[in-house]
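As agreed, record minuted below.
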Amino acid sequence: MKNQLLAFFIASVTQLAFPNTNFAQAPNLGTAANFVLFTPTGAVGNTGISQITGNVGTNSGAITGFGNVNGVMHNADATTVQAGIDLLAAAYYLDTLSLTDTIGPVLGNGDTLLAGVDTIFAAGSIVGILTLDAQGDSSAVFIIKIGGALTTAASATVNLINGAQACNVFWIAKGAISMAASSTMRGNLISYPGAIDLGDGCILEGRALSTTGSVTVYGTLGYIPTGCSRPMLTGPSAPNLGRLECFALFSSNGIVANTGVTNLTGDAGSNNGSATGYDALLVTGTIHPYPDPYTAQCANNFPRAYNYLDTLPYDIELLYPAQFGNNLVLTPHTYRMNAATVFTDTLYLNAENNPNAIFVIQVTGAFTTSANSKISLINGAQAKNVYWKITGAVTINDYSVFCGTVICNGAIILNTGVSLDGRALTSSGNVNTTTITADNFSDGNCTVLPIKLLSFTADCDKQNVMLKWSTATETNNSYYSIQRSSNGINWLVVGKVPGLGNSSIQQNYSFTDKESYNGVSYYRLRQTDIDGQSETFKIIIINNCRKDHDELDIYPNPAVGIFNLLFRGDKEQFQSVSIYNVSGEKVYCSGNYQSRFDLSDKPNGMYFIYFNLTSGSIVKKFMIKK
């Protein structure tokens, strides 16, 4: 009687959930869709280090051998009860579908399957490469029914082309499913009934679901596929950092100190201590050597950001903090680790093609990395969207690559060669750095120096470079440093120009560099306040100034209005020629190359001719004197 009632229940659910149709439709997996590994009856086990994205569960059996999983572990709870019911209904639906085609027992070796319901009436296997072709229809559904066990040979691969999606692929076997080592499977594996075993190094873009039987994996990369109306992961909302957004390194109560050559993009400072050891020429931002109104504002903003991250409800608990990293893949969620954490090897943050997705990792305890550890951002993940809330001290060891904003309440140590794409912020404790690179990626308004730059330009003057800049307002402005580079990375101070201190009207400055490079020269302007705070402005580029004088001549000069132009360079680079008077008005323009000009109708005075090439511009002065 119980079996008859069960059969009636399944048939009733199936009729409601899956309408009759003559073409293949994907089954509704219900709550089972949240699992990457699941069985209602049987154990779920792992050997080695597997990377699993999706829930893992059983309603009757043990879960053993797993390290950190990017999902929730469910064992005999309300979720597994419902998932078992939903899986059985989906399996029954697939099992009763009418076939579209009959295929042989051995798939692969270059075979291609089209969408539909393909049936193998006995056991089946996959050898070599099997291709599933959606023919441009991203909603195409592939259902492969196997009348017995399903196996794959070592390194067998299922490929998807022309819009085929793993979420629309279903393999249902009337027996066990076994994937040999290094196989790549795409689609949902459903054993009805039987055990599922994924061998060493297998990749599963899909799910492994057994109606009755164990599910085991060995060093497997398994993840629930995207698409098929699965909601895009966004993660939680980002915290409001306030003024902290402008800082790469900050302590509310502790010194901020550096040893060695450190490059910073962002501010550095403390609200109850000094900031020392940083070379102002290597800091794109502001060094706050002592507490000031800006550090005070950061100290006020800190508790808001920390408390927000600390009280966020977590989606996933990573159960083995001491094994964090080890090629773990995380997606946009709030994660928690309830003990001191050791980060080893590599962590992948996968935004699943959502560049705005937020990652939050909460750590209750100290946080330490191994040397050469690395965070890798994939599929659109951005460092500015990653936040680490750490209750304790933080140590990032030698030559590690770390991404995100660290907000903690202990000392921070960034050791030799660390690359920090983010911020290191603490409420209490020293921040110590040793020859690191840090970039706080702030896209907010972090300018704190009281100067407004209107323009900064470079022009060739014979073989020299004439640099000009203008300011709208200045307050406590001490001086400007002019820096030159041959590559835009390494900079040399080539001159200083005194500032005017305080000004509320436009001021114009200039500097002539007589030692520019052959080829491209990069210039940037750095302004320093009377109190030592400094700011670096954008980079400008000028090309071939030392070469211009030899390549282009104007004669006669002065002229009565008619003059000749001699260009010794590559005429194929010519784009246009423009002539301006001293007021900046364009008096002539041509897109055709010419060597003779007639400006007899123009008044006496100084003029500038811009000879525009694909490699840059050559500027020459000439006089009309009648």
Summary: Helices lie at 2-17, 78-95, 293-311, 545-551. The longest strand covers residues 464-485. Residues 1-22 have pLDDT under 50 and may be disordered. DSSP finds four helices and 59 strands in the chain.
